Amino acid sequence: MSENNKDKEKGSGLQDDPGTSGVMGTEIRPGAREWVIPVIPLRGLTAFPYLVFHFDIGREKSINALEKAMIANQMVFLVSQKNPETELPMTEDCYDIGCISKIKQMLRLPGGDSIRVLVEGVSRGRALQTVAEVPCLEARIEEIPEEDFSEEIPPRVEALLRMVMGSFNEYLEAGGKGTDAFSAVELVDQPGRIADIITSNMDIKTEQKQKILEAFPVEERLSILGDTINKEIEIEKIEQDINRKVRSKINRNQKEFFLREQLKTIKEELGVEEDFDDEIADWLKKLKKLGIPEKVEEKAEKEIKRLSKMQPGSAEATVIRSYVEWVFDLPWNKYSSNEIDLKTAAKKLDEDHYGLGKVKDRILEYFAVMSLAKDLKAPILCLVGPPGVGKTSIAKSIADAMGRSFVRLSLGGVRDEAEIRGHRRTYIGSIPGRIINGMKEAKTMNPLFLFDEIDKLGNDFRGDPASALLEVLDPEQNKDFTDHYLEFPFDLSKVLFLTTANNLDTIPRPLLDRMEVIQVPGYTELEKVKIAERHLIPKQRELHGLTPETFAMTGGALKDIISYYTRESGVRTLERNIGSVCRKAARKIVEGRNKQVRVTSGNIENFLGKKVYRYDIIENEQLVGITTGLAWTSVGGTTLSIETMKVAGKGSVVLTGQLGDVMQESAKAGISYIRSIAEELGIEKDFYNKYDIHLHVPEGATPKDGPSAGVTMCVAMISMLTGIPARQSVAMTGEITLRGKVLPVGGVREKLLAAHRAGITKALIPADNEADLDEIPAEVKKKMEFVLLGHVKDALPHVLASMPTGKKKPGAKTGK
């Protein structure tokens, strides 16, 4: 017997007698029946005579009792607590009968909080009086002698003993506890001791063991023990029978039967009479009514019949059920109305978006043709332009004007082909691709489908999504688009596909060839003002809980925000700044400082801080070796400064500012051209041997490339080598050849709008780009002068403060 849990001792139900006292450590007198010894209460443990066992103690009183016994005669009285939960047991919390025991060994456990004690039971004992309760329990104990059957065992006791031994053996076999305990019992010849050993080896409650401990006549003890063993055998048999029945039922067929019976009962309670077979029959009827293509119907019917032969709860049945549900969820033969009123559509587009004339014209042309040719295959339109110009929002407006469902699919960062075509059903958790999922959401066969940011598609080991889109975006092929999950063709020919992009360079050529590209240019200052007045200010005012009566912004303030706090082609930063102004206005109103907030040019800095950008380039500012160029980026046009410098050296050329290979070649071509006309320009003939030339383009962290800065770099080096200042209010763009000819470049409209935003008054562009001037808004043409260049020399009189000495002024064709 052992008790391993810390502090699991129990206390004694001793009779208090304040008038009686005893002395701890009194020697045991020969033949004496009583003595005074310390008491240790036990929790969850019962001590029996003649048995050696160990237990742990940790309560302070129990440790004090142990130490007192060790000092004296090593004798203690071990008694069980009535309630194991009692932490500080008193005399009334313990039983009267316990075991007088001798301490054989004690060991302090690691940590020092508890002690392990090895004891040997001596005899039963009854607590007569409590002698002390501090520092430990101490009592006067009466020894209860055991009956001696050494000479002869009475027949009834012998019969009870045999019955107990047989029952104990059966108990051990029923519980699979082995025969070691039974062998130990067979070595003992005293019936009382046999009963105590058997009781200590049984897994029964403390109350039951205490009852056997308190049975003094051996005959009564054996009788109680026999009843207890037989009861435990019955309980063991019942447990085994229950376990056997449970194990026999927990097999697959029985489990399915049980779940089916439960499902049947639930349906009966809910009044649902439909079962699995009825569901299969309904699906087959529904399939016939869909009016889907014959091949699709055959495949769906085959899958439904496969499902009918399976267990409904199996994994394969779940996959097939999901597949069939997808087939039924697709919008077979459902179309939005194609009746479009051009005037209404045009009005809707104008209400939602200011400007974007080319986009609107192309859409209205499609509407017109669609009204005449009902079976027209929808075009694939690609809206290309800088961020924030309304490419995505106009797609939604087009869908509204047509009365069609709108589905948007963002392709930014998509790298897996399965995102487009879906996963094959052989994979766990497979689903259709985003095209089919979008059709399910649209609930019609002719929605407007927007592929947003198509230029941001990626590819890796999982496939190339751009290649998967080739079939989708080809009007000749998409009527038979096949998703890997569905495994049958699905008609996409009635879908109007729109795509958006910031840059055409990253779109694969075969994919780009399938789309009709519509350039969506950046906005002019006037257009931004109109957009802000019509859309942005009302939107932000409403979002921030303001009204026209409590918040107003003048046109001057709006122009200042556009000029000094934004530098973009679109209006996103403009909208954020308007939102920032609205937040500060809302705070002033809530704090009671103002009942109405009016934002003007005079107080705009109170809302947005100091100006971020300088709008006006000083017209008369002239610098040697520095010119202003125009560049195009994926976010619109921009201006850039080209800086050059010569230092004494051996003719090396240093190019810095993260210039790409093409741009470096343009700079070297410019140097070669200058060398060829050095004498004509009044430049030292051997300058390339005497000086090192350093050309730098600021904002070195930003990579730059392309040939369009050729004329700008060439003129900057001419200014530097001749020492003639260059006008900073003149910007230019154009590729040059070795002989100084200026070639056409792209992105002219965006570049000129950027020049206008930066305060440039004159722009020099290649003569071959003259047609691009037709796309420049009228308000920009009024404020800027445009010069057409055929040769680098044509730029010199417009950029340099004076012409090189003694040389003729190059003629240049001008346009405005």
Can you describe this structure?
This protein is of the alpha/beta class and 816 residues long. It contains 28 helices and 28 strands. The strands form 7 sheets. The protein has an 8-stranded mixed beta sheet with strand order 20-21-19-18-23-26-27-28.
Secondary-structure blueprint:
Blueprint: E1 2-3, E2 34-42, E3 52-57, H1 60-71, E4 75-80, E5 97-108, E6 115-132, E7 138-144, H2 155-175, H3 180-186, H4 191-200, H5 206-213, H6 218-249, H7 252-270, H8 276-289, H9 294-308, H10 315-329, H11 342-352, H12 357-372, E8 380-384, H13 391-402, E9 406-410, H14 418-421, H15 434-442, E10 448-452, H16 465-472, E11 481-482, E12 489-490, E13 496-501, H17 509-513, E14 516-519, H18 525-543, E15 551-553, H19 555-564, H20 572-590, E16 597-599, H21 604-608, E17 622-624, E18 626-633, E19 636-648, E20 653-656, H22 661-676, H23 678-681, H24 687-690, E21 691-696, H25 710-722, E22 725-727, E23 730-732, E24 735-736, E25 742-743, H26 748-757, E26 762-766, H27 778-783, E27 785-789, H28 792-799, E28 813-815
Parallel strand pairs: 1-3, 2-4, 8-13, 8-14, 9-10, 10-13, 15-16, 18-23, 20-21, 23-26, 26-27
Antiparallel strand pairs: 2-7, 3-6, 4-5, 5-6, 6-7, 11-12, 17-22, 18-19, 19-21, 24-25, 27-28
Return Rg in Å.
50 Å
Strand content: 15-25%
Report mean pLDDT, rounded to a whole number: 83
Q: Trace the largest sheet across and list its strands.
A: 20-21-19-18-23-26-27-28
